[in-house]
Amino acid sequence: MRHFETDKPKGPAGNAIGRSFVHESAIKQVAGKAFYIDDKAEDVNSLHAYPVLSTISCGKILSIDTKPALAEAGVIAIYSAKDIPGKNDVSPVFTGDILLAEEVIEFHSQPILLVVAESYQSARIAARKVKIEYETSTPVLDIKEAIAKEHWVRPPHALHRGDAQQSIIDSAHQISGELTVGGQEHFYLEGQVSIASPTEDGGMFIETSSQHPSEVQHLVAKVLNQPFNYVTVEMRRMGGGFGGKETQAAPWACLAAIAAYYTGKKVKIRLARGDDFRSTGKRHPFYNTYQVGFDDDGLISGVDINVNGFCGYSADLSDAIVDRALFHADNAYYYPNAHINGNRCKTNTVSNTAFRGFGGPQGMIVAEQILDDIAYYLGKDPLDIRKLNLYKPGRDLTPYKQKIDQFILKDMIEQVEQESDYWSRMQAIKDFNKTSPIIKKGLSLTPVKFGISFTVQHLNQAGALLVIYSDGSVHVNHGGTEMGQGLNTKIAQIVAQALSIDMKHILVNATRTDKVPNTSPTAASSGTDLNGMAALNAANIIKERLIEFACEHFEVNKDTIQFVDNQLIHDKGKISFAELIQLAYINRISLSATGFYATPEIYYDREKAEGRPFFYYSHGIALSEVEIDLLTGENTLTRVDILHDVGNSINPALDIGQIEGAFIQGMGWLTTEDLRWNEKGELASNAPATYKIPAIGDTPAEFNVKLYDSQNPATTVFKSKAVGEPPFMLGISAWSAIRNAIASITDYKYAPSLNTPATAECILNAVQVAQQWQQKQQQKNQG
Ligand code: MTE
Ligand code: HPA
Ligand code: MOS
Of all protein residues, whose CA lies closest to atom 16 belonging to ligand 1? Predict the structure, then answer.
């Protein structure tokens, strides 16, 4: 393996941290040499499986006729829920996430049967030929109906501080608002795919595109009614996961395993894109309402917020997702009195799941809406209102009583404000808008404060296996998975730094449940924090052994020993790392170790709704400038300036790539990605033609991304910070800037309501409402 750097190497080996090594898969990806599951060679005997999906959203199965499908050439078998040897349940936390529908149908495109055939084509064609008769009932598709009927997948949970309602009533000003927040399709480039191969010991080997190999192992075992050691899962890389493969890769692996179990052959399952769209969960849409009380300056005294997550038919991860929405409904702002409630609404749609930010974005947008709304109400600049309400470090607690001990956002805002000329640009935009009748510009600066750790305490652990072969080359396995974010590259850098050797000596490849067991999903942005620490722990264990050995062997003092630049130096001389390892091997020193890490200090008491769910926070600032066209509603993001906090960056190029990608994905969520269901509850936007993710042309013409210079005060791996999800929420600045452009129609006196995604159609509607408001205002003034 070769590790390239994007800029000149800095200093000797062992200074791998902070250097921009190229992603370990990048060269292979552009050369077409990076293997994905579907690229694997099939055996002559390999079979293919395809699910039969329901064509109704709610009802009962009356009859199934598989004859026309079985008559299709190459079809081997068709399995139903009755054939599942173990449990027909693939729930990650609770119960109710069903593998194959038994009698009841709860969402459109719910898997009912599995067709197994000699070719992918036959399986897919046959799946469509199964005839199913249903008794249809009226589905609950509207979130407001679910709220009114108290249709929950899990009970509500709320955060409290003081008397929110009283503080709002006692305030000089009160406003309220609501917001419908759209969902989002993951649109990973590689869709859901798994291969199950029976092993000679009567076990099952699974290759899958999953963020959570251990959970796939456990669920395959449960479905087959076998112990966990019956199943081994391997995952080399995903073509993107974004949360969509945290829990929802497992059902497909389980289906492949059932087919392999019965046929004794290797079975592959790969969903066509349209079916992947229809039958896998997405980001939760939300419906949020708020009331806020504040003084003449815009200082908030109390909020009453209600967030309602559109969970779909089952719990999946929705409990934790709505919790994270609650934990981020404050974003960066202090609410002296607060009541923040979260409902988990049950609807007859596919079960929504993790997606970058994990409910955080849907909660955070409420805070940014409130701050903008206060500013327009008082006729003040939104940035001033934001600055006024920021947390004060050392003083403030969040609504869940976590102390804010590091708070750098004030400083970060000031840096962006100055370096990106906020005030002069805002003035120029106001001048421009006065004279431009059709094109209006908008500007907005929004911060992000995102809590890092799984909010489920036990998931905050990781393991690693570090092996040094007798020639000095190193092989690392860890519990995390590579989905494009660069985790394996960062782990290699951490090990290179720990052992003071060149990156070229280190190989990090597939994640395997038989190498590192009982792992957590690679999620919550914690991949490097957790697995990096575990790998560092393993490296330090071996290093200790080597130091002890060197002390004895060379008869030197421990304090004189140093690992530097591929060598071990002691006060009597030096030896190359490779020679040291050979010597250690001959002297029978163990050269492999497992490492472990568990995040300290974190807990959450659900009864009291308080605790320290997060080890620390990651921060960021985005300043977005947009142009909207009042005749068409079209919008263009013309310039974006981002300052983001990754602590001590392990790899600046990877971190900046994550920030750029996350921002664009967040912008897409809020502007163009429009999920639509028809009245039957079938997803209508189920292909790239009807669902628009950002393309290269949507990148802002001027896109400046900078890393904020500060280390993580928490004891993380080399004082770095997690980066995967937090910058997603910087996209909120684009939405807020569009509102700013629309508000210009009313001389910034009216806060336009703008549901998301703010498509051209939505913007045009909001523009018309603002124009009508302005006309009424003028009539009032004249009359
Ligand atoms: N980056 C790429 N290229 N592809 C992905 O699928 N997933 C995101 C983020 N960045 C993702 C990505 C999500 S949802 C998470 S939680 C983190 O990466 C997970 O990886 P990490 O914990 O190693 O940052
Ligand atoms: N984030 C992401 N994934 C998760 C979490 C979380 O907080 N909890 C459980 N799975
Ligand atoms: Mo990321 S949504 O935590 O997989």
Answer: 523
In this predicted structure, what is the pLDDT of residue 224? 98
Separation of CA 245 and ligand 3 centre (Å): 9
Give residue 752 CA to ligand 2 midpoint distance, Å. 33
Which ligand neighbours the alpha carbon of 189 most closely? 1
Q: Which of 215, 368, 625, 725 is catalytic?
A: 725
Residue pLDDT, tens place only, 693-734: 999 999 999 999 999 999 999 999 999 999 999 999 999 999
Q: In the CATH scheme, what is the code of domain 403-453+615-783?
A: 3.30.365.10
Q: What is the distance in A from the centroid of ligand 1 to the CA of 483? A: 6
How far is Cα 6 from Cα 491, in angstroms, rounded to an integer? 18
Residue 526: φ, ψ to 5°:
-95, 5
Q: For residue 41, what pLDDT band results from cuts at 50, 70 and 90?
A: confident
pLDDT at 9 over 70: no
Residues with CB under 6 A from ligand 3: 211, 243, 246, 354-356, 358, 523-524, 725
- The pLDDT assigned to 1 comes to 59
Q: How remote is the CA of residue 738 from the centroid of ligand 3, in Å?
A: 27
Mutate to test the pocket of ligand 2, among 215, 327, 358 (most ligand atoms within 8 A of CB): 358
Q: How far is the CA of 239 from the centre of ligand 1 (A)?
A: 11
pLDDT tens for 171-188 read 999 999 999 999 999 999
CATH architecture of 461-598: 2-Layer Sandwich (3.30)
Bridge partner residues of 307 (DSSP): 288, 342
pLDDT band (50, 70, 90) for residue 692: very high
CA 184/CA 165 separation, integer angstroms: 33
Mean pLDDT of 208-212: 98
For atom 5 of ligand 2, the residue with the nearest CA is 454
241 lines ligand 1 (CB under 6 A): yes
Distance CA 101, CA 97 (A): 10
Return the residue whose CA atom lies nearest to atom 7 of ligand 2.
Answer: 454
CB-CB neighbours of 679 under 10 Å: 9
Catalytic site includes residue 725: yes
The torsion of the CA quartet 652, 655, 659, 660, rounded to 10 degrees, works out to: 60
What's the mean pLDDT when you consider all of the chain?
97
Cα 410 to Cα 346, 387, 404, 452: the distances in Å are: 40, 7, 13, 20
Q: What is the pLDDT of residue 2?
A: 64
Per-residue pLDDT tens over the stretch 53-96: 999 999 999 999 999 999 999 999 999 999 999 999 999 999 99
Q: Which of 505, 467, 462 is nearest to 487 (CA)?
A: 462
What pTM, to 2 d.p., does this model score?
0.98
Domain ranges in the chain? 403-453+615-783, 461-598
* Residue nearest atom 1 of ligand 2, based on CA coordinates: 524
Token pair in block for residue 66: 């598989």
Average pLDDT over residues 562-581: 97
Residue of 23, 186, 192, 242 with the most ligand 1 atoms within 8 Å of its CB, for mutation:
242
CA atoms within 13 A on the CB side of 308: 20
Give the count of alpha carbons within 13 A of 743, CB side only.
Answer: 29
Tell whether ligand 1 has an atom less than 6 A from the beta carbon of residue 190: no
Q: Are 49 and 195 in contact (CB under 8 A)?
A: no
